[in-house]
Design goal:
The complex is a heterodimer of chains A (312) and B (187). With 312 residues, chain A is α+β, with helices and mostly antiparallel strands. In chain A, 37% of the residues lie in helices and 24% in strands. Chain A has one domain: Bira Bifunctional Protein, Domain 2 (BirA Bifunctional Protein, domain 2, 2-Layer Sandwich), CATH 3.30.930. In chain A, strands 1, 5, 6, 9, 10, 11, 12, 13 and 14 form a nine-stranded mixed beta sheet that branches. A three-stranded antiparallel beta sheet of chain A has the order 2-4-3, with no helix packed on it. The longest helix of chain A is centred in the N-terminal third of the chain and has 20 residues. Chain B has three domains: 61 residues, Roll (SH3 type barrels); 60 residues, Nucleic acid-binding proteins (OB fold (Dihydrolipoamide Acetyltransferase, E2P), Beta Barrel); 58 residues, Beta Barrel (OB fold (Dihydrolipoamide Acetyltransferase, E2P)), CATH 2.40.50.140. In chain B, strands 1-6-2-3-4-5 form a six-stranded antiparallel beta sheet, with no helix packed on it. In chain B, strands 9-8-7-10-11 form a five-stranded antiparallel beta sheet. Chain B is elongated, with a radius of gyration of 22 Å. Classes of the chains: A alpha+beta (312), B mainly beta (187). At the A-B interface, α7 of A face β3 of B.
Chain lengths: 312, 187
């Protein structure tokens, strides 16, 4: 037996409390959706045509790809008359590894017909408050020495407002200077969700390939992110349901990807042709691993999964 | 060539013609935006450190670094002279480049000289060296408390804690990584 055998065994044993909590949390989330008339669905992990996004790269699997999110298949179900669906599944993203990233991670994704992004934020808030309560967090969460007050309503501010509050330059200027991510990560994110959970909404449309544009503002999409304790937890939006516009946005993303020599994906035609059947809907993806980090007061994603790629 | 996704702690890169080692690394990726690779880099020649954030489109040259076994000959002014055991060529390191290794550098010691593009920039000592004690207080009968130590001076001028029974003129083995006494050496 090698030293690393003992290290790994010790490492796995050490995580037991976290993994027990993780299993309980997932049960409680399922229960919420079950009690609120959602249907749990399963869609394939291995797909021929992932949604082209400029900054998310899929891992290829023979001629196909491992999903980066279950989004396209779930929206095809939505289009086919499944108005309230959720899924807890594995997603895969190439070359994403850090304290908050694993190349294989667990996503909770749900879609609701007839909602827009503002209503979806409220529903997300209700779901999490109920799940937190079931896990014994009634009023607050303490994460990395921060006391986060869970009392509703949670803070909701626009991305532009968050920049003007926390950064020295405006969101528009940051985009013009090609510094959006740097300013976001360095100046804005550290403040988000540190007193109470924060939704930031109305994102630049360039980073919202599948989101509906906000009426009359071509640069802004009806998209939001949820932060708790400066951890980015969930991303949601009003679904873009115009096939023509969606095709154009996919083409833009495919071109941007080609310039970086990233994988060339086929156009997801079946998804595009189903899109016109959706009238209005909103959907959201929430990182389960990070939610467990929050509830276990851990600062590294490695602590809340049994195995990291390095342990295999 | 390295790309940003190769970045990790310990990676050695060439930036602005100097070798750097990554001493801290983190991957961040806000929202659906592009990935940022946060690093803290240390210049392997002058020790200067700075933080820099890279993006996935960035790429880097690896630093051409290798080690070669050489023998320490002598110190002249503020230069330390070493001889390549293969071709008898002599190379020099500054006091700054030798740093604390100076405490254990004795004549004719074989060391690994770190070369950056064939230019010497540092050295690694063997893990263990044997040094002669040049100054030590005599051992007094009664100093028998187990674990008791006293400071002695060795031939390089360095002062080290040893058990009280070690006396002047004796040879001791020292771990250069921890600067700690290990044992007496006979003969």
């Amino acid at each position: 037996m090698t030293a690393s055998f003992f290290d790994d065994t010790h490492n796995l044993a050490r995580k037991k409390d976290y993994l027990v909590l993780r299993a309980g949390l997932i049960q409680n989330i399922r229960l919420y959706f079950f009690n609120h008339d959602f249907l749990e669905v399963e869609t394939p992990l291995r797909i021929p045509a992932p949604a082209p996004e400029e900054h998310i790269e899929a891992i290829s699997s023979e001629e196909w790809f491992l999903q980066t999110s279950p989004e396209l298949c779930m929206k095809r179900l939505l289009a086919a008359g499944y108005p309230r669906i959720f899924q807890i599944c594995k997603c895969f993203r190439d070359a994403e590894r850090g304290n908050l990233h694993l190349p294989e991670f667990t996503m909770l994704e749900w879609y609701v017909s007839g909602l827009n992004y503002l209503r979806l934020m409220e529903q997300c808030e209700n779901m999490l408050i109920e799940a937190f309560n079931k896990m014994g967090c009634e009023e607050k969460i303490i994460w990395q020495n921060r006391n986060i007050n869970l009392a509703p309503p949670w803070e909701k501010i626009s991305v532009a407002e968050a920049f003007s509050r926390y950064a020295k330059i405006s969101c528009d200027q940051a985009i013009a200077d090609d510094k959006f991510e740097e300013i976001m990560a360095d100046c804005v994110e550290p403040h988000l969700g540190t007193v109470q959970p924060t939704f930031i909404y109305d994102y630049p449309s360039a980073q919202s390939t599948l989101a509906k544009l906000k009426n009359g503002t071509p640069d802004i999409a009806e998209r939001f992110e949820l932060y708790i304790g400066s951890l980015e937890l969930a991303n949601g939006f009003s679904e873009l349901v115009e096939a023509q516009e969606q095709r154009k946005r996919f083409l833009d993303a495919l071109q941007a990807r080609a310039r970086k020599n990233w994988n060339n994906y086929p156009m997801p035609e079946k998804f595009l042709s189903s899109l016109e059947q959706i009238h209005a809907a909103a959907g959201i993806a929430l990182g389960i691993d990070r939610l467990v980090m929050l509830l276990t007061d851990t600062k590294c994603i490695d602590d809340v999964v049994a195995f990291t790629p390095e342990m295999l | 060539m390295y790309t940003a996704s190769d970045l990790r702690k310990g990676l050695r890169l060439k930036i602005d013609n100097d070798p750097y080692v990554v001493i801290e690394f983190n991957f961040v990726k806000p929202g659906k935006g592009q990935a940022l690779y946060r690093t803290k880099l240390k210049n392997m020649i002058n020790g200067n450190q700075f933080e820099r954030t890279f993006r996935s489109v960035d790429n880097f040259e690896p630093a051409d670094l290798r080690e070669k076994k050489m023998q320490y000959l002598y110190k002249e002014g503020d230069k330390y002279c070493f001889m390549d055991n293969e071709n008898y060529e002599q190379v020099y390191l500054t006091e700054e480049q030798v740093g604390d290794a100076n405490n254990f550098l004795i004549d004719n010691l074989d060391v690994e000289i770190l070369l950056f593009e064939d230019r010497p920039i540092g050295l690694t000592l063997p893990n263990f060296v044997e040094l002669i004690v040049t100054e030590a207080d005599p051992w007094a009968k009664g100093d028998t408390v187990s674990g008791a130590t006293k400071p002695v001076k060795v031939q390089t001028g360095y002062t080290i804690q040893v058990p009280t029974f070690v006396s002047e003129g004796e040879k001791i083995r020292v771990d250069t990584r921890t600067s700690e006494y290990l044992t007496r050496v006979k003969g």
